[in-house]
Amino acid sequence: MIREFINRKGELEFLEERHKNKKFEFFVIYGRRRVGKTELIKHFIRNKLHIYLLCDKSGTKKNVYRFKKKVSEFLGEPIIATNDLEEVFSYLIKRAGKKVIVVFDEFSYLAEKDPAVPSLFQVVCDELLKNKDIFLILCGSSISMMEKGVLSSKSPLYGRKTAHIKLTPIHFKHFNKFFPLNSLEKNIEFYSILDGIPSYLETFSDKKATLENIKEQIWSKEGRLYEEIDFLLREELREPDVYKTILDAIASGKTKVVEIANKSGIKVQDLDKYLKVLIKLGIIKKEIPLTEVKSKKSLYSIKDNLFNFCFLFSEPYKSDLEIRELKNAEEKFKKGFDSFIGRKFEGLIKREVLKKAGIMQIQKAGRQWGKFKGEKGKNTYEIDLVALNDNTKDILFCECKWQEKIDAEKIIKELMEKSGHVSWHNEERKEHFAVFAKSFKKKIKKFENKKVHCFDLKDIGKILRKKGQ
Asked: Which of 178, 361, 406, 420 is spaced 20 to 30 Å from 257 by Cα?
């Protein structure tokens, strides 16, 4: 469907431009599952001479046989009597006569099953393809395998690729093209659950309420996303149950290593390796206060929106959902969904709104928290977003409130108090203050003679429509 190619214009143009070259091209395309890699490739190879093989886990010998069958079909000739990958490519090159795109999709399946596979492709590239008009694409969903087995300096294929594309989720600014009937508020709800994963976006309908979509696609046994979390963990990890225990701990509000260890029952010294894997997969993230370069204040949270949603509103009630009992999950959803969106709203403002809001030139942005002298239990602070510019010494303090009729004066007063605890070029910095919310009782432009910026959903919509990133 055409919707799946929204926000892929740059990648397609890049592929098309390189396809014009009359020389060997070797592209590596990778990214998390469901992000749209296969659809991008199929869109690119459409109406071009190509051989496309979706690799499976049956091993090298069977996949080479499947590949030579594809070559035979492409050439309209009998299957050659060899199981040697190099000989199959040699046969193709001699008889093709024209530029051919050769795609090995889910290459990670092949390489994970047989560590010698990258070396086989190294020989093919070096001995057969490097001076030929062939466009080779290796595509994979296992990010760790593609980076280690294909892109890293230790891989036999290192230095052979001519380009690589790491496909990322679709930007939120394109959601109105997926869901033209949705309000901005409803699109933010959808984003908070599905992120920008094209395959997930296809499951929700803008003709249905958010909760109705959830019931049909996430809580129903027939729903396309009902088993998605388990599937992804099984595909990517050797100990999926251990990782589920860790994710459950983080989702419950345990954000420090010791807290996660205590909740999950995993020793602190063993936990680090699991956390690193989850970070590598993009499922969780590790944060430190923005103004600190090195810090022992690390906090962990679930980065992947669907994982986060499911570990809050689905996984704890999986036994109920198995017998189609939705009451407990629905009660938790109604109590906690707005709070859940609030954190995703912060991330959305940081990634797609803040730099285009016109307040200051931003070099980096993130959360800020810490302690100050005072009564224990009342001596901590947290600021939703802080943005910095080291060159100009500008600093922006922001609060993001997923609420209606916000009292801007109250929020700004508290924000200014908290800003005093942030140590960063205190004597020379230029301070800015902003609040992002659904709506305000009354917007203000100044507070205590300091300029203030108030953005409601209408303002945010205008910012998102601005050109540029």
From this structure: 420
